[in-house]
Amino acid sequence: MIPARRLTGGAEGSTIAAMKSAPRKFELTADILLRAYSIGVFPMAESRDAKELFWVEPHERGIFPLDGLVVSRSLVKAVRSDRYRVVADRAFEAVVRACAEREKTWINDDIVRLYRELFAAGHAHSVEAYEGDTLVGGLYGVSLRGAFFGESMFHRARDASKVALVHLFARLRTGGFRLLDAQFWTDHLASLGAVEISREAFRLRLADALEIEADFAAWPAAAEMSGAAALARARHDGTEVATGGSPGRSVVRA
After folding, report:
1. Is there a contact between 60 and 194 (Cβ–Cβ < 8 Å)?
2. Domain for residue 55, yes or no?
3. Is the peptide bond preceding residue 23 cis, with omega within 30 degrees of 0?
4. Which CATH number fits the domain that encloses residue 178?
5. SS3 letters for 144-204?
6. What pLDDT shows up at residue 1?
7. 153 with 62: CB under 8 angstroms?
8. 129 forms bridges with which residues in the sheet?
9. 60/25: higher pLDDT
10. Mean pLDDT score of the chain, rounded to an integer?
11. Is residue 227 part of a domain?
């Protein structure tokens, strides 16, 4: 889950070569996409106008331990203030398109179509932050049994995407999820608790998460959640309140 400027790259590091669109031998469907997620790979495009997708499976994977959220004092204040009204699944496609509103993006028309189909099937979700009636931040991802695969996040107002992430933690912990995949490790995500694990370790965690059936709607998607409730549900005994400084790279090998 890459904030603001998600990595756009080639097929280097992927376990599957670039999937050419011309000539296309088959139509990439939501069902095929889910099967790919179940083995730890996901699609990207080179750019907004790209006509092909390629599969990616990073050698080092970024994840958020669901008991390891890091919140700054200012973020606690922002969440608790309820400045933003946070809901889920009300404007999924708008969130995807907002994530693509930047000079360089990996989200093309095929990506929008595929994740719209996953959303219609109940396997993709968005968390949205509103200021009044204006969408100012959010994130989206894919839900498969006990795993949630964060795809991208955006903000148009201060801390809006971070507030959405706290609410995502709250929903996933409420629903019994075991894994929150961030795909790539970045300094920004590390400041919120992301760590880096090996591909092999990720596959083990994914297999464990796929053993259970979690429920994104355990807190109903249509129901708003207050900031205080989100913090209470998102935080764990291991939750850290950050006081400043830059995070170092945290690598977990087991």
Report:
1. no
2. no
3. yes
4. 3.40.630.70
5. ECCEEEEEEEEECCCCHHHHHHHHHHHHHHHHCCCEEEEECCCHHHHCCCCEEEEHHHHHH
6. 65
7. no
8. 86, 137
9. 60
10. 86
11. yes
pLDDT of 253 reads 35
Q: Kindly report the backbone phi and psi dihedral angles of residue 31, in degrees, each rounded to the nearest multiple of 5, phi listed first.
A: -65, -45
Compute the distance between CA of residue 126 and CA of residue 94 in angstroms, rounded to an integer. Answer: 9
Give domain status of residue 35, yes or no: no
Q: How large a percentage of the chain has pLDDT more than 90?
A: 76
User: Which residues are 190's β-sheet partners?
Assistant: none
Amino acid, single-letter form, for residue 100: A
Report, in angstroms and rounded to the nearest whole number, the Rg of the chain calculated over CA atoms: 17
Q: Does residue 31 come out as left (phi exceeding 0), alpha (psi in the -120 to 50 range) or beta?
A: alpha
Cβ–Cβ < 8 Å for 2, 105: no
User: How many Å apart are CA 13 and CA 15, to the nearest integer?
Assistant: 7
Report which of 233, 246, 181 is spatially closest to residue 39, judged by C-alpha positions: 181
pTM, 2 dp = 0.85
> What is the rounded distance in angstroms from the CA atom of residue 59 to the CA atom of residue 116?
28
Helix axes 73-81, 227-234, angle to 10 degrees: 130
Residue 212 lies in a domain: yes
Q: How many domains does the chain have?
A: 1
Q: Are 69 and 236 in contact (CB under 8 A)?
A: yes
Boundaries of domain holding 146: 60-244
Q: Which two tokens stand for residue 199?
A: 């591909």
